[in-house]
Protein backbone atom coordinates (compact mmCIF):
# COMPACT_ATOMS: atom_id res chain seq x y z
CA UNK A 1 0.00 0.00 0.00
CA UNK A 2 1.34 3.39 -0.94
CA UNK A 3 2.26 5.86 1.80
CA UNK A 4 -0.48 8.32 0.75
CA UNK A 5 -3.15 5.60 0.99
CA UNK A 6 -1.87 4.57 4.43
CA UNK A 7 -2.03 8.15 5.70
CA UNK A 8 -5.55 8.63 4.32
CA UNK A 9 -6.75 5.40 5.93
CA UNK A 10 -5.18 6.36 9.26
CA UNK A 11 -6.88 9.75 9.19
CA UNK A 12 -10.24 8.16 8.35
CA UNK A 13 -9.98 5.70 11.25
CA UNK A 14 -9.03 8.51 13.67
CA UNK A 15 -12.00 10.62 12.60
CA UNK A 16 -14.36 7.66 12.87
CA UNK A 17 -13.08 6.87 16.37
CA UNK A 18 -13.49 10.50 17.44
CA UNK A 19 -17.05 10.58 16.12
CA UNK A 20 -17.89 7.39 17.97
CA UNK A 21 -16.56 8.80 21.23
CA UNK A 22 -18.26 12.20 20.89
CA UNK A 23 -21.59 12.43 22.74
CA UNK A 24 -24.68 12.74 20.57
CA UNK A 25 -27.17 15.56 21.05
CA UNK A 26 -29.13 13.22 23.32
CA UNK A 27 -26.15 12.44 25.56
CA UNK A 28 -24.25 14.39 28.17
CA UNK A 29 -20.47 14.47 28.50
CA UNK A 30 -20.58 11.13 30.31
CA UNK A 31 -22.30 9.46 27.36
CA UNK A 32 -25.62 9.11 29.21
CA UNK A 33 -28.85 10.30 27.62
CA UNK A 34 -30.55 13.13 29.56
CA UNK A 35 -33.66 12.28 31.54
CA UNK A 36 -36.75 13.65 29.84
CA UNK A 37 -39.16 15.60 32.04
CA UNK A 38 -42.57 16.62 30.77
CA UNK A 39 -43.69 20.16 31.63
CA UNK A 40 -47.44 20.47 31.10
CA UNK A 41 -48.41 24.12 31.63
CA UNK A 42 -50.68 26.76 30.05
CA UNK A 43 -48.58 28.44 27.37
CA UNK A 44 -51.58 30.02 25.65
CA UNK A 45 -55.02 31.12 26.78
CA UNK A 46 -56.47 32.99 29.74
CA UNK A 47 -53.76 32.06 32.28
CA UNK A 48 -50.75 31.89 29.98
CA UNK A 49 -48.92 34.37 32.23
CA UNK A 50 -48.84 31.70 34.95
CA UNK A 51 -47.38 29.22 32.50
CA UNK A 52 -44.72 31.67 31.38
CA UNK A 53 -43.70 32.27 34.99
CA UNK A 54 -43.41 28.54 35.61
CA UNK A 55 -41.44 28.02 32.41
CA UNK A 56 -38.86 30.59 33.46
CA UNK A 57 -38.43 28.85 36.80
CA UNK A 58 -38.21 25.40 35.20
CA UNK A 59 -35.65 26.56 32.63
CA UNK A 60 -33.45 28.12 35.30
CA UNK A 61 -33.53 24.89 37.30
CA UNK A 62 -32.71 22.77 34.25
CA UNK A 63 -29.73 24.99 33.45
CA UNK A 64 -28.11 23.67 36.62
CA UNK A 65 -28.06 20.17 35.10
CA UNK A 66 -26.55 20.65 31.63
CA UNK A 67 -26.91 17.54 29.51
CA UNK A 68 -28.73 15.69 32.32
CA UNK A 69 -32.28 17.05 32.10
CA UNK A 70 -34.33 17.62 28.96
CA UNK A 71 -37.59 19.52 29.38
CA UNK A 72 -40.45 18.61 27.04
CA UNK A 73 -43.04 21.40 27.06
CA UNK A 74 -46.70 20.79 26.28
CA UNK A 75 -49.46 23.41 26.30
CA UNK A 76 -52.34 22.47 28.59
CA UNK A 77 -54.27 25.63 27.73
CA UNK A 78 -55.53 25.33 31.32
CA UNK A 79 -57.93 22.65 30.03
CA UNK A 80 -58.00 19.24 31.78
CA UNK A 81 -58.68 17.43 28.49
CA UNK A 82 -55.71 19.06 26.77
CA UNK A 83 -53.57 18.33 29.81
CA UNK A 84 -54.48 14.65 29.78
CA UNK A 85 -53.84 14.42 26.04
CA UNK A 86 -50.42 16.00 26.56
CA UNK A 87 -49.49 13.59 29.36
CA UNK A 88 -50.65 10.57 27.35
CA UNK A 89 -48.50 11.72 24.46
CA UNK A 90 -45.42 12.05 26.65
CA UNK A 91 -46.09 8.80 28.50
CA UNK A 92 -46.27 7.07 25.13
CA UNK A 93 -42.79 8.39 24.39
CA UNK A 94 -41.40 6.97 27.62
CA UNK A 95 -41.55 10.04 29.89
CA UNK A 96 -42.21 9.25 33.56
CA UNK A 97 -41.44 12.55 35.30
CA UNK A 98 -43.71 15.57 35.05
CA UNK A 99 -43.95 19.19 36.18
CA UNK A 100 -47.15 21.19 36.15
CA UNK A 101 -49.80 22.45 35.86
CA UNK A 102 -50.56 26.03 36.89
CA UNK A 103 -54.24 25.21 37.38
CA UNK A 104 -55.78 22.83 39.88
CA UNK A 105 -58.30 21.41 37.40
CA UNK A 106 -55.56 20.18 35.08
CA UNK A 107 -53.48 18.81 37.97
CA UNK A 108 -56.45 16.86 39.33
CA UNK A 109 -56.91 15.32 35.87
CA UNK A 110 -53.20 14.47 35.55
CA UNK A 111 -52.74 12.89 38.99
CA UNK A 112 -54.77 9.68 38.34
CA UNK A 113 -53.00 9.22 35.01
CA UNK A 114 -49.65 9.62 36.73
CA UNK A 115 -50.59 7.00 39.30
CA UNK A 116 -51.87 4.55 36.70
CA UNK A 117 -48.58 4.81 34.81
CA UNK A 118 -46.31 5.05 37.89
CA UNK A 119 -45.11 8.50 36.84
CA UNK A 120 -44.05 11.24 39.26
CA UNK A 121 -45.97 14.55 39.10
CA UNK A 122 -44.59 17.59 40.93
CA UNK A 123 -46.96 20.56 41.26
CA UNK A 124 -45.69 24.02 42.16
CA UNK A 125 -48.49 26.61 42.08
CA UNK A 126 -51.86 24.83 41.81
CA UNK A 127 -53.55 25.28 45.18
CA UNK A 128 -56.84 23.33 45.34
CA UNK A 129 -57.41 21.51 48.62
CA UNK A 130 -58.48 18.45 46.60
CA UNK A 131 -54.89 17.94 45.40
CA UNK A 132 -53.97 16.89 48.93
CA UNK A 133 -55.59 13.50 48.23
CA UNK A 134 -54.57 13.29 44.57
CA UNK A 135 -52.57 10.09 45.02
CA UNK A 136 -49.11 8.80 46.01
CA UNK A 137 -47.38 9.93 42.80
CA UNK A 138 -48.35 13.60 43.16
CA UNK A 139 -46.27 16.07 45.22
CA UNK A 140 -46.81 19.78 45.76
CA UNK A 141 -44.38 22.41 47.05
CA UNK A 142 -46.95 25.20 47.54
CA UNK A 143 -49.56 25.50 50.31
CA UNK A 144 -53.22 24.61 49.60
CA UNK A 145 -56.15 27.01 49.39
CA UNK A 146 -57.16 26.46 52.99
CA UNK A 147 -53.99 28.26 54.06
CA UNK A 148 -54.82 31.25 51.84
CA UNK A 149 -58.40 31.47 53.09
CA UNK A 150 -57.23 31.48 56.68
CA UNK A 151 -54.57 34.11 55.95
CA UNK A 152 -57.23 36.33 54.35
CA UNK A 153 -59.56 35.97 57.34
CA UNK A 154 -56.78 36.76 59.82
CA UNK A 155 -55.66 39.75 57.76
CA UNK A 156 -59.17 41.19 57.54
CA UNK A 157 -59.71 40.81 61.27
CA UNK A 158 -56.28 41.81 62.62
CA UNK A 159 -54.86 44.20 60.03
CA UNK A 160 -57.97 45.82 58.53
CA UNK A 161 -59.85 45.73 61.84
CA UNK A 162 -62.98 44.71 59.96
CA UNK A 163 -65.76 42.31 60.90
CA UNK A 164 -68.50 42.84 58.27
CA UNK A 165 -67.29 41.02 55.16
CA UNK A 166 -68.60 40.31 51.66
CA UNK A 167 -67.60 37.29 49.57
CA UNK A 168 -67.62 37.60 45.78
CA UNK A 169 -66.16 34.46 44.20
CA UNK A 170 -65.66 33.13 40.70
CA UNK A 171 -68.05 30.26 39.89
CA UNK A 172 -65.39 27.65 39.20
CA UNK A 173 -63.68 25.00 41.37
CA UNK A 174 -60.91 27.41 42.36
CA UNK A 175 -63.21 30.18 43.52
CA UNK A 176 -65.69 27.78 45.14
CA UNK A 177 -62.96 25.99 47.10
CA UNK A 178 -61.53 29.24 48.48
CA UNK A 179 -64.95 30.72 49.26
CA UNK A 180 -66.04 27.57 51.08
CA UNK A 181 -62.94 27.51 53.23
CA UNK A 182 -63.14 31.25 53.89
CA UNK A 183 -66.66 30.86 55.28
CA UNK A 184 -65.33 28.40 57.84
CA UNK A 185 -62.40 30.64 58.77
CA UNK A 186 -64.66 33.69 58.95
CA UNK A 187 -66.76 31.96 61.61
CA UNK A 188 -63.62 30.97 63.52
CA UNK A 189 -62.37 34.56 63.54
CA UNK A 190 -65.75 36.15 64.37
CA UNK A 191 -66.23 37.71 60.93
CA UNK A 192 -69.81 38.31 59.79
CA UNK A 193 -70.46 37.52 56.12
CA UNK A 194 -73.21 39.90 55.08
CA UNK A 195 -73.00 39.32 51.31
CA UNK A 196 -72.11 36.08 49.51
CA UNK A 197 -72.39 35.74 45.74
CA UNK A 198 -70.75 33.95 42.79
CA UNK A 199 -70.19 35.26 39.28
CA UNK A 200 -69.69 33.40 36.01
CA UNK A 201 -66.46 33.78 34.06
CA UNK A 202 -68.51 35.11 31.15
CA UNK A 203 -69.59 38.17 33.15
CA UNK A 204 -67.93 41.32 31.82
CA UNK A 205 -69.99 44.07 33.43
CA UNK A 206 -69.91 44.11 37.23
CA UNK A 207 -72.09 47.21 37.64
CA UNK A 208 -75.00 45.34 39.22
CA UNK A 209 -72.71 43.39 41.55
CA UNK A 210 -70.94 46.53 42.76
CA UNK A 211 -74.27 48.27 43.38
CA UNK A 212 -75.31 45.28 45.51
CA UNK A 213 -72.06 45.55 47.45
CA UNK A 214 -72.64 49.24 48.07
CA UNK A 215 -76.11 48.47 49.42
CA UNK A 216 -74.77 45.70 51.70
CA UNK A 217 -72.14 48.07 53.18
CA UNK A 218 -69.36 45.59 53.98
CA UNK A 219 -66.10 46.75 55.52
CA UNK A 220 -64.02 44.48 53.27
CA UNK A 221 -64.61 42.18 50.29
CA UNK A 222 -62.97 38.78 49.71
CA UNK A 223 -62.75 38.06 45.95
CA UNK A 224 -61.09 34.72 45.06
CA UNK A 225 -60.68 34.53 41.28
CA UNK A 226 -58.33 35.10 38.36
CA UNK A 227 -56.69 38.39 37.39
CA UNK A 228 -59.01 39.19 34.45
CA UNK A 229 -62.26 39.25 36.43
CA UNK A 230 -60.52 40.77 39.44
CA UNK A 231 -59.34 43.66 37.27
CA UNK A 232 -62.88 44.24 36.01
CA UNK A 233 -64.22 44.24 39.58
CA UNK A 234 -61.61 46.75 40.73
CA UNK A 235 -62.22 49.07 37.78
CA UNK A 236 -65.97 49.03 38.22
CA UNK A 237 -65.69 49.59 41.98
CA UNK A 238 -63.53 52.67 41.42
CA UNK A 239 -65.86 53.93 38.71
CA UNK A 240 -68.92 53.59 40.95
CA UNK A 241 -67.26 55.00 44.04
CA UNK A 242 -67.08 51.86 46.15
CA UNK A 243 -63.95 52.43 48.20
CA UNK A 244 -63.81 49.48 50.59
CA UNK A 245 -60.74 47.21 50.49
CA UNK A 246 -60.69 44.13 48.28
CA UNK A 247 -58.70 41.03 49.24
CA UNK A 248 -58.02 38.51 46.48
CA UNK A 249 -55.95 35.34 46.18
CA UNK A 250 -53.02 34.01 44.15
CA UNK A 251 -55.16 33.72 41.02
CA UNK A 252 -54.98 37.52 40.75
CA UNK A 253 -51.19 37.55 40.95
CA UNK A 254 -50.19 38.64 37.46
CA UNK A 255 -48.71 41.80 35.92
CA UNK A 256 -51.76 41.68 33.65
CA UNK A 257 -53.87 42.73 36.64
CA UNK A 258 -52.25 46.17 36.69
CA UNK A 259 -52.43 46.45 32.91
CA UNK A 260 -56.16 45.69 32.89
CA UNK A 261 -57.21 47.51 36.06
CA UNK A 262 -54.95 50.54 35.72
CA UNK A 263 -55.01 52.92 38.71
CA UNK A 264 -57.93 50.94 40.19
CA UNK A 265 -55.48 48.18 41.16
CA UNK A 266 -53.63 50.46 43.58
CA UNK A 267 -54.11 49.31 47.16
CA UNK A 268 -55.55 45.91 46.23
CA UNK A 269 -54.59 43.09 48.65
CA UNK A 270 -54.13 39.42 47.89
CA UNK A 271 -52.94 36.30 49.64
CA UNK A 272 -49.87 34.78 48.03
CA UNK A 273 -47.35 31.97 48.40
CA UNK A 274 -44.68 32.99 50.89
CA UNK A 275 -40.95 33.42 50.22
CA UNK A 276 -38.03 34.41 52.40
CA UNK A 277 -36.17 36.89 50.24
CA UNK A 278 -33.17 36.77 52.54
CA UNK A 279 -32.72 33.01 52.35
CA UNK A 280 -29.63 31.71 50.49
CA UNK A 281 -31.90 29.66 48.22
CA UNK A 282 -33.96 32.66 47.13
CA UNK A 283 -30.91 34.86 46.67
CA UNK A 284 -29.33 32.28 44.37
CA UNK A 285 -32.55 32.00 42.40
CA UNK A 286 -32.96 35.78 42.20
CA UNK A 287 -29.40 36.30 40.95
CA UNK A 288 -29.80 33.65 38.24
CA UNK A 289 -33.18 35.07 37.24
CA UNK A 290 -31.92 38.64 36.96
CA UNK A 291 -28.91 37.54 34.94
CA UNK A 292 -31.01 35.58 32.44
CA UNK A 293 -34.20 37.64 32.19
CA UNK A 294 -32.99 41.13 33.18
CA UNK A 295 -36.03 41.69 35.39
CA UNK A 296 -37.45 41.16 38.86
CA UNK A 297 -38.59 37.56 39.47
CA UNK A 298 -42.14 36.79 40.51
CA UNK A 299 -43.30 34.30 43.14
CA UNK A 300 -44.68 31.78 40.62
CA UNK A 301 -41.27 31.56 38.92
CA UNK A 302 -39.66 31.08 42.33
CA UNK A 303 -41.97 28.19 43.21
CA UNK A 304 -41.53 26.62 39.78
CA UNK A 305 -37.77 26.85 40.23
CA UNK A 306 -37.91 25.30 43.68
CA UNK A 307 -40.16 22.41 42.63
CA UNK A 308 -38.13 21.65 39.52
CA UNK A 309 -34.87 21.83 41.47
CA UNK A 310 -36.14 19.21 43.91
CA UNK A 311 -37.27 16.85 41.15
CA UNK A 312 -34.14 17.31 39.01
CA UNK A 313 -31.89 16.71 42.00
CA UNK A 314 -33.43 13.30 42.53
CA UNK A 315 -33.45 12.14 38.91
CA UNK A 316 -30.12 13.53 37.65
CA UNK A 317 -28.42 10.15 37.93
CA UNK A 318 -31.13 8.41 35.92
CA UNK A 319 -32.51 6.54 38.90
CA UNK A 320 -35.70 4.48 38.70
CA UNK A 321 -39.10 6.04 39.32
CA UNK A 322 -39.43 3.88 42.41
CA UNK A 323 -36.24 5.17 43.99
CA UNK A 324 -37.10 8.79 43.12
CA UNK A 325 -40.53 8.29 44.67
CA UNK A 326 -38.96 6.90 47.83
CA UNK A 327 -36.54 9.81 48.15
CA UNK A 328 -39.29 12.38 47.60
CA UNK A 329 -41.22 10.79 50.46
CA UNK A 330 -38.25 10.76 52.82
CA UNK A 331 -35.91 13.54 51.72
CA UNK A 332 -35.28 17.17 52.59
CA UNK A 333 -34.12 20.02 50.34
CA UNK A 334 -33.20 23.70 50.74
CA UNK A 335 -36.08 25.92 49.67
CA UNK A 336 -37.76 29.31 49.65
CA UNK A 337 -38.87 29.07 53.28
CA UNK A 338 -36.26 26.80 54.80
CA UNK A 339 -36.03 23.08 54.23
CA UNK A 340 -38.68 21.40 52.10
CA UNK A 341 -40.15 18.11 53.30
CA UNK A 342 -43.21 16.32 51.96
CA UNK A 343 -45.72 14.71 54.31
CA UNK A 344 -47.63 11.47 53.74
CA UNK A 345 -49.94 13.26 51.27
CA UNK A 346 -47.07 14.79 49.28
CA UNK A 347 -47.78 18.22 50.80
CA UNK A 348 -45.60 20.79 52.55
CA UNK A 349 -46.58 22.97 55.49
CA UNK A 350 -45.82 26.46 54.21
CA UNK A 351 -46.57 30.03 55.10
CA UNK A 352 -48.85 32.32 53.14
CA UNK A 353 -48.17 36.05 52.83
CA UNK A 354 -50.37 39.02 52.02
CA UNK A 355 -49.27 41.34 49.21
CA UNK A 356 -50.56 44.76 48.19
CA UNK A 357 -50.42 46.55 44.86
CA UNK A 358 -48.31 49.66 45.30
CA UNK A 359 -46.92 51.66 42.40
CA UNK A 360 -48.09 49.01 39.90
CA UNK A 361 -46.13 46.29 41.72
CA UNK A 362 -46.99 43.51 44.17
CA UNK A 363 -45.34 44.39 47.49
CA UNK A 364 -45.26 42.11 50.58
CA UNK A 365 -47.56 43.69 53.15
CA UNK A 366 -48.27 41.51 56.16
CA UNK A 367 -46.49 39.05 58.38
CA UNK A 368 -46.84 35.43 57.32
CA UNK A 369 -49.66 33.34 58.77
Distance between the termini: 84 Å
Q: SSE order in H/E notation?
A: HEHEHEHEEHEHEHEHEHEHHHEE
Helix and strand composition category? alpha/beta
Mean pLDDT across every amino acid position: 90
Q: What's the architecture of the largest domain in CATH terms?
A: 3-Layer(aba) Sandwich
**Poorly predicted runs:** 1-26
CATH topology of the largest domain, by name, is Rossmann fold
Number of helices: 12
Q: What share of residues are in beta strands?
A: 15-25%
What is the CA-atom radius of gyration, in angstroms?
Answer: 24 Å
For the biggest β-sheet, the strand order reads: 7-6-8-9-10-11-12
The gross shape turns out to be elongated
Written overview of the protein:
This protein has helices at residues 3-21, 48-62, 80-92, 104-116, 145-159, 173-188, 207-216, 227-239, 255-261, 280-293, 299-315, 321-330; strands spanning 35-41, 69-75, 97-100, 120-123, 138-140, 164-170, 192-199, 220-222, 246-248, 269-273, 352-358, 361-364. A 7-stranded mixed beta sheet has the order 7-6-8-9-10-11-12, with helices on both faces. Strands 2-1-3-4-5 form a 5-stranded parallel beta sheet, sandwiched between helices. It is elongated and about 70 Å long. The chain has 369 residues and is α/β, with parallel strands linked by helices. The protein folds into 2 domains: 35-143 and 277-338, Response regulator (Rossmann fold); 146-273 and 354-364, Rossmann fold (3-Layer(aba) Sandwich), CATH 3.40.50.2300. Helices cover 44% and strands 17% of the residues. The N and C termini lie far apart (84 Å). Residues 1-26 have low confidence and may be disordered.
Amino acid sequence: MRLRQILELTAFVALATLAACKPTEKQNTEGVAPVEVGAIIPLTGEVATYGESLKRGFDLAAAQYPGKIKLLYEDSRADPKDGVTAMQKLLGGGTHYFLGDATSGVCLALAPLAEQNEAVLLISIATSDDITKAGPYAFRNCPPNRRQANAAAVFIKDRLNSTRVAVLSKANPYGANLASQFRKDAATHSLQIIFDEEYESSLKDFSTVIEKLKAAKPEAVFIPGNYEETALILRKAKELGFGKPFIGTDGAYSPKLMELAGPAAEGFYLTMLGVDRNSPFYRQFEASYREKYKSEPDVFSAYGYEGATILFKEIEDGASVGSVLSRLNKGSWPGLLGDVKFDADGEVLRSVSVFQVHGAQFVPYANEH
